[in-house]
Design goal:
elongated; about 70 residues; mainly alpha
Length: about 70
């Protein structure tokens, strides 16, 4: 079980893994929902190791560094 794949990208996992991760996906979905409703933050990506989230996390970190330097 790879709990580091976010619910958004879990559809790329095979069917067996999706069934096994049903509870994990539900938990991650609620984490994403609450995080997205408050503010889009790089902390969200702490829970996911998929390439899409890793790239987005790098962009967020760069954006945060730029805004912190202003």
């Amino acid at each position: 079980m790879d709990a580091k794949i976010c619910s958004t990208h879990s559809r790329f996992l095979n069917q067996e893994t999706n069934r096994w991760n049903k509870l994990t996906q539900t938990i991650l979905s609620s984490i994403y929902s609450s995080a997205l409703s408050s503010q889009w933050d790089s902390e969200i990506y702490f829970f996911c190791s998929c390439n899409v989230c890793k790239k987005e996390e790098k962009k967020q970190k760069k954006k945060n560094v730029v805004s912190n330097n202003v």
